[in-house]
Amino acid sequence: MTDPRSGAGRPGGWALLARNRMAAGGLVVVGAVAAVALAAPLLPLPDPDATRLGERLMPLFSPGHPLGTDPLGRDLLSRIVWGTRVSLAVGAVASLFAAVAGSAVGVVAGYQRRWLDSLLMRGIDVLMAFPYLLLALAIVAALGPGLVNAMLAISVVNIPFFARTVRGATLGVAGRPFVDAARLAGMGHARILWGEVLPNVLPVIVITLTTTLGWMILETAGLSFLGLGAQPPQADLGSMLGEGRGLIVTAPHVATVPGLVILLLVIGINLLGDGIRDVLDPRLRAGVPERPGMATAVGPKVGAEPTAESGGAVLAVTGLSTRFRLGGRTARAVEDVSFTVGRGECLGIVGESGCGKSVTALSLLRLVPTPPGEVDAGRVAFGGRNLLAVAPAELTRLRGGRIAYVFQDPDTSLHPMIPVGWQIAEAVRVHQGVGWRAATARAVALLGQVGIPDPASRARAHPHELSGGMRQRVAIAMALANDPELLVADEPTTALDVTVQAQVLGLLDRLRRERGMAVMLITHDFGVVREVCERVVVMYAGRVVETGPVRDVVGMPRHPYTRRLIACAPRVGEADRPLTEIPGLPPAPDTLPPGCAFADRCELAVAACRAPVPLETPTAARTVRCIRWREVGP
Amino acid sequence: MYGYAFRRLLLAVPVLLGVSVVVFLLMAVIPGDPAHAILGPYATPENVARLQAELGLDRPLPERYLVWLDNLAHGDLGRSYSLNRPVLDEVTERLGPTLLLAGTALLLCTLMGLAAGVVAAVRQYGWQDRVLTLLVLVGISTPSFWLGLVLTLVFSVQLQWLPASGMHAPYGASGALDVLRHLLLPAVTLAVVAAGVIARLTRAGMLEVLRQDFVRTARAKGVREARVVFRHAFRAALVNLVPVIGIQTGFVIGGAVYIETVFQWPGIGRMLVEAISARDVLLVQGGVLVMAGVYVLINLAADVVQHALDPRIGT
After folding, report:
1. How far apart are CA A576 and CA A111, in angstroms?
2. Is residue A595 within 8 Å of residue A610, measured between CB atoms?
3. Which residue has the higher pLDDT, A330 or B238?
4. Distance from CA of B223 to the nearest CA of A (A)
5. What global pTM score does this model have?
6. Residue A21 near residue A270 (C-beta atoms within 8 A)
7. For residue B299, which phi and psi values (nearest 5 degrees)?
8. Residues B275, B82: contact at Cβ < 8 Å?
9. DSSP characters for chain B?
10. Which of A164, A95, A173, A151 lies closest to A123, judged by CA?
11. Residue A557, preceding bond cis, omega within 30 degrees?
12. Confidence of residue A103 (pLDDT cuts 50, 70, 90)
């Protein structure tokens, strides 16, 4: 548990609460207010109801009356302390009542799940159909004004919040095996509800309680303010505010100070409530979603120097390293990766999931989400510049312009609420500055080029109205919108049916040849590489382990991992060949060994593999990162 | 879409009936029935019995409910004791000012809440986010009736920029501009308090959407960041915020009760408070019923709007 890198090493509840300074502040405020209110009879305060007609409406900081006096000469400090006592008590009782009644409804409804559930929940629906406070007013109207009735009214209107959330939680618990086991063991419903269900939904009840408590104190104070709650001589903070309302011009402190106390108290309760919710809610504990920035953060080791021409290659990546910072851990997703893509060439990047191939692709145009991602080192030479160092405006111009992406899952990578033609037209417009009409015409033409029948009407369709294959064609059309020199396709066929996969691959291959466009194809499938790629880069655990022309690599792999990967891929005409899987799993990216990362799964591994392995060059066109490459055969 | 709106309307009917039952029952259990209230403490038992029969109070509850519902369907909400006029007339007269106040406040709090939420999400953990989070916390913890008093003190009493109460100037200026001047303080007070919830949920919704693949696609095709946030992410987040705004209407309508009382705004909220003090049961009943109906319809509209905004939900 003390190892900060172990997954179970999350801080405990109390530590989390204490670390949350806001919640701690809330606790201090609420604790202080509650302590003063509880100690009211012991404090040296004047009688809150004693009228002194000679000392009427004294201002703040008067001798003997630090907060002044009201129109009857009563000491305001004393009245506020005693009024806070009433307000706190009323709020607490109202919350407890709402929690008990609402939770009872929720637990019973969620546990029974049949007619009783529908009946109770329809009743709750009706209560929720009222504007919150108006139902409370109607209840007070029926019962008559008074503090107890106001409290009751506020409780009743809060019952639905408890009933709904607790029912939801109960539904989750009631289907679990231990409840069935208890039932089979002959336990009665009441005992199951009390002993098995209630303890499991208790956190939800506490969360709802802490988030509604502030509201209930505000609303009971509000009813008193309206003259419908506490009746004289009884006073809570709300009724003091109401009585002082008429004096707002002559003696503003009579009304404003009690209001300030309510504000302070409720802020404290809400801060504390947020803290408690953070501790108890497992979803929040896992962390609030981080907002990925516009571009991946770049570390100081990335140089801004312009790059020399890279020998006819469209793209030259040198020493690229990308890492993810998660909590206190650093996962090295991509480590010292170098490769080039020739003009009009199709380069395959292949490896198991998690080997860093997608992160490599996204790093080129700094599309890795930050936080937690960061490009640590390297150079991406394209058009005489280092893409890792260009200004944001330039990056935006390059994205979708000279370099375009097609992503893995067309279900999630297209905007679900915008017609596909509009989405393609937008890609045209942001780069070419043409009008909507021209951009839309271009979008329709592109849809035709990627083989979508009746493109003019399909352009108006939303993504969900198209099949998976059609959606990926749309994504390809979008990428082609500005005739890119390089198309980066990240597992473009993985999410598709097998027959559709072949069509989409064929389409990509045809478009590449027609347009002389370079393609970087990321895949886990050596079969795909063999079909459409000219050269291949094999990645394992964030590093390049082998590169070379596809024909050579497939014919004579030089890295044991490449050989296993090829054996995994089905081949046309070899239906009988057994497909072998690679035993074991890749190492976790935050615990990469200094030596060969594949050694643990490799049958050729020797002691020397544990030391750093250099990239060797078996032939001019090939590289391999294995000290025993000569012994690896087909 | 029209099909959905129609089905949604049909679903609202049982809810409205349920609302009417609750309101009817609440008023029927009132201790000390209306006959006693009308005739006063010195009425003879015979007179009370006769009036009860006249008012139909001696009939069984279900029968009384049906008669009441029938009257309701004919626009008859009964007669207010304290004002001595039909409840419907009073309620319709008061409905306009309340809708004006609540509508303006809703518009303001929606704009403020959405803007604050988007900025906080885009600048997550930045100083803008911290400041906005603090403001939201203070906003949702503020008693609106107190804020109203403080704003009156500052802007009406001290600075004398805006009128402290009412809807129209008693003499002199009149017309839309005058109403606007009177509307500003109450509407802002109501909106500030209600904006917090919308801001919180907008921030959470935007953070959720900004992580999604289609946002990355928009960035990958070279869309400027401002456009990514507003055209792509906000468009997707808004769909789930529309029902939140609908629910928030309920809090605005409820909060209007305080605000109308503080600013002497001639709306339904103030009418209700006065009616409760006067024990004018039928007036309370009519006011609550009409506002609950408005609220149900607004939530219905919010659902239909959400439906129209999201093409994924079939019609």
Report:
1. 54
2. yes
3. B238
4. 6
5. 0.85
6. no
7. -65, -35
8. yes
9. -HHHHHHHHHHHHHHHHHHHHHHHHHHHS-SS-HHHHHH-TT--HHHHHHHHHHHTTTS-HHHHHHHHHHHHHTT---EETTTTEEHHHHHHHHHHHHHHHHHHHHHHHHHHHHHHHHHHHHTTTSHHHHHHHHHHHHHHHS-HHHHHHHHIIIIIIIS--S-SS-SS-SSS--SHHHHHHHHHHHHHHHHHHHHHHHHHHHHHHHHHHHTSHHHHHHHHTT--HHHIIIIIIIHHHHHHHHHHHHHHHHHHHHHHHHHHHHTT--SHHHHHHHHHHTT-HHHHHHHHHHHHHHHHHHHHHHHHHHHHH-TTS--
10. A164
11. no
12. very high
**Dist. CA A83–CA A163, nearest whole Å:** 31
pLDDT exceeds 50 at position B54: yes
Q: Kindly list the residues from chain A whose CB atom is less than 8 angstroms away from the CB atom of residue B312.
A: 416-417, 462, 464
Tell me how far apart the alpha carbons of residues A518 and A530 are, in angstroms, rounded to a whole number. Answer: 17
Measured in whole angstroms, how far is the alpha carbon of residue A245 from the centre of its chain? 46
Tell me which residue has tokens 């303890």. A199
Asked if A356 and A337 count as a contact pair (C-beta separation under 8 A), the reply is yes
Buried b (16+ CB within 10 A) or exposed e, A452-470: beebeebbebbbeebebbb
Go through A262-275 and write b for each residue having 16 or more CB atoms within 10 A of its CB, e for each that does not.
bbbbbbbbbbbbbb
Alpha-carbon gap: A436 to the closest alpha carbon of chain B (Å): 15
CB atoms B273 and A426 under 8 Å:
no
Chain B contacts in chain A segment 117-146 (CB below 8 A): 122-123, 125-127, 129-135, 137-145
Amino acid at A42: L
Q: How far apart are CA A224 and CA B71, in angstroms?
A: 34
Is A479 near chain B, with CB under 8 Å?
Answer: yes
* More confident: A585 or B103: B103
> Alpha-carbon distance A379 to A579, whole Å?
38
Kindly report the number of other CB atoms within 10 A of residue A386's CB atom. Answer: 18
List all residues of chain A from 214 to 233 with a beta carbon under 8 Å from chain B. 214, 218, 221-222, 225-228
pLDDT of residue A574: 59
Average pLDDT value for residue range A341-350: 90
The pLDDT confidence band at residue B108, using thresholds 50, 70 and 90, is very high
How does residue A521 score in pLDDT terms, banded at 50, 70 and 90? very high
List of residues 6+ apart from A574 with CB closer than 8 A: none
- Reply yes or no: is the peptide bond before residue A4 cis, omega within 30 of 0: no
Contact A87, A217 (CB under 8 A): yes
| Tokens at A247, concatenated | 């004096």
Contact in structure between A522 and A532 (CB atoms under 8 Å): no
CA distances from B277 to A220, A229, B284 (A): 17, 11, 10
The set of residues, in sequence order, having a beta carbon less than 8 Å from that of A463 and lying 6+ positions away, is: A410, A411, A414, A415, A416, A420, A471, A474
Q: How far is CA B12 from CA A118, A264, A402, B31, in A?
A: 16, 40, 54, 31
Query: Which residues, numbered 42 to 101 in chain A, qualify as contacts with chain B under a Cβ-Cβ cut-off of 8 Å?
Result: none
C-alpha to C-alpha distance for B205 and B208, rounded to whole angstroms = 5
- Nearest chain B Cα distance for residue A606, angstroms: 43
Work out the angle between the directed axes of helices A21-38 and A253-280 (0-180°, nearest 10): 130
Q: How far is it, in rounded angstroms, from Cα A379 to Cα A339?
A: 11
Residue pLDDT, tens place only, A62-95: 777 788 888 787 888 888 998 899 999 999 999 9
DSSP reduced 3-state for A319: strand
Three-state secondary structure call for residue A369: coil
How far, in Å, CA of B154 to CA of B164, rounded? 10
- A228, two tokens: 């419908």
Flag if A430 and B222 touch (Cβ within 8 Å): yes
Q: Interface pTM (ipTM) of the complex? A: 0.89
